[in-house]
Amino acid sequence: MRSIIQSHATEFALLVVIAVISVVLSLSTDSFLTPGNAFDLLNSSSVNIIFAVGLLVVLIAGGIDISFAVAASVAQYVTAILLGWIGGGGWISGLLIAGGVGVLLGAFNAFLIHKFRIISIVATIATFNIYFGLLMFFTRGVSIYNLPDWLTERVILYEREMADGSWIEITLPVLVMTICVIATWIFITRTTTGRQLYAFGDNPDGARRFGVNIAAMQFIAFGWLGLMAGIGGLVQAHYAQEVVPNALYGRELDVLAAVVLGGARLGGGKGTVLGCVLGVLLISITQNGLNLAGVSPFAFKMIIGAIILAAITLSNSNLEKRLPFMRQAKGRG
Amino acid sequence: MAEMTSMESSPKPLLSLRNINMSFGGISALKNVSFDVLPGEVHCLAGENGSGKSTLIKIVTGVYRPEPGTIIDYDGQTYPHMSPMTAQAAGIQVIWQDLALFPEMTVAENIAFQTVLGSRPRFVHYGHMRDIAVKALARLGVSLDVDLPLKEYAIAQRQIVAIARALVGEAKLVFMDEPTASLTQSETDHLLDIVRNLSAAGVAVVFVSHRLAEVLDISNRLTVLRDGALVGVYPAAGMIQSRITELMTGKTFDHKLRARDVSANPVVLEVQNLSRPGLFEDISFTVRRGETLGITGLLGAGRTELALSLFGMLKPRSGTIRLEGKPVRFSSNRDAIAAGVAYLSEDRLSLGLVQPQSIADNLVVASLGRITSGGFLSDDRKRELVAGWITNLGIRIGRQGDAVSTLSGGNQQRIAIAKWLATDPKLLILDAPTVGVDVGARAGIFEIIAKLADSGLAIILISDEVPEVYFHADRVLHMAEGRIVNRFAPRDCTLRDIEAAVYA
Asked: How many inter-chain contacts (A to B, CB under 8 Å) are there?
């Protein structure tokens, strides 16, 4: 048990923080700790979790991406237009188009980073502006409301009324999110390519000397994030029932904060899918709880900033120092 | 120049290189060098930095392609050149100086890393990886928890992990690049045991090092390179350190005791009962004007921690520090610098110098107050100050504006010393000043230290190489587990006496 806690210190700390916040919120509001609210939270966090697991892969490979949220907007818009041309389409064609556009935009980032040796934060700040600028220029900021029916129709996979009268439902975004989370987990922990990504992020020079294909690593990491951005973008359009060009603008920093909160390291080689999901959930729970408690929305950002600082301080390997019983003599044999 | 010893009736070499020529941008790195390794032998490849050792390894392992005309005979096959893939497949492995490990990944993944290589994605078999890792470690007679992330282990164990990884690929020939550079004596001894076992099992091991004393007694033969040319191949038996140094540098060094009696000089530093529980305890000593005090002991003996507390970077819990009779209490190293203490850190590369910055900027960074005029930095005064120290210490540089990273280890160390001398200190603390510095350049550094002492500076010389403190200090303190356990005067004892105490 001790070694499990030790090797997953970040996830453990996040669970503790989530538990504490949940207890506080359930004492201060009536509606927080209801099954209905819990499932609402899951439904509304799905898009961010899809983005987050994509971004996690890039962080593990030692990169960073600022452009994925606007790339998701581009994917939404292109998909909506193409679906109009082909006369409706369906979930399969929609996901293929959105995912494909996302992969292309991600690959462009990888191309800039690998070919011209631009550091990823600079390259993606540039593409963030390019993607968003092109989107606003060609759309003139006009939203699309007449989306195909299949895209705007809520798909409820499971629903049930609970004993307390609240209504729980699991919707399509949750299913898509679950598939993305499991796929990313299998990809980064169970495949050789995923382990090469960790190694590349951990020690790029060491990986290179072993013959790990550096170009492939960049394209795979940014391509995976692009895929998740495309899928997440389509799911967001479905959830919001509209395509608004600047709807996701600014989302990149929220997701980045959540992923870093989940234990991923800026600099590479470190981060888990579980930590990443918990990071997003912690932020959503806090936001939701504050909402229910009637706190002014203007105070949200401030409180969330404080929570990110507190959680990161707690999880950044300081856990061992704070809890001496978890210390253990090792090394220096 | 090449004086080949006869190799009559020796077994057929596992690796044999002939006519290796290699140049970079018109500058010749290897000139007509030959190199042989016999199956299962332990072979030392000796030479100063820049002598061509690393170039040679990179040719054997396929990182570099030699100029046409080279013949590489390995294990019954002839190659015009190697590639990393063919070298690995043929059982040639390298343990690089920086180890090239992955600290966030588990020990098992590090050792069995080649199972996840290849461009076609496959599923990872963690069980299989663990088996490989456990088996490789068992072969070395070491037990580590293979499920822990590598970062949980200290450098010595990481070294073992790197060796274990090299053995996974059925290695026949293992190159070890500076394997003992960051190990203590007992860790080095353990490494040498491992090498002995490998050699007994038929694996040939080539040591690349400029600290050869420790590997000499387990080696069979020695190849010495100088300036890209072969000096010769010698049997290791009967070879002594000083002879190797001569062969490597082409110069003779006389080892004369520096130790003098300076007990008449005024005391600069007096430390009484200085303690910081867990790091060092009950430390008392004095250093006089013009005196060099050596402090030796194994890694982890508390030497560096003691030095840091004299430099204001670590607060002692109790005890007093007096500088020229006045009690001082430093709350930061800025106080210590102002009071006349200078500290040359152990880790020059990361703490001492800012590698990408210019020589001039590095040299003046601790004494900016001296080169301002009217509150602004004066370029003229900076150039003057830098030029003065460069001449004074005989540092060979291109231009003042060149990056420090362009200099050799020895010259970098001189820049680091000059940086502190520019602060006009009373007490200079040198922590492991020769780590990563060539034998030839070491002599130059000790010349500077002697000159500084003669000019009246009080110097504390910290080193885990006993000969360095024995030959160059006036008195020697031996620290173990945070305490001073022995005090030696080199004039009244032998090198063996101190070594026996330290390595006991």
From this structure: 80
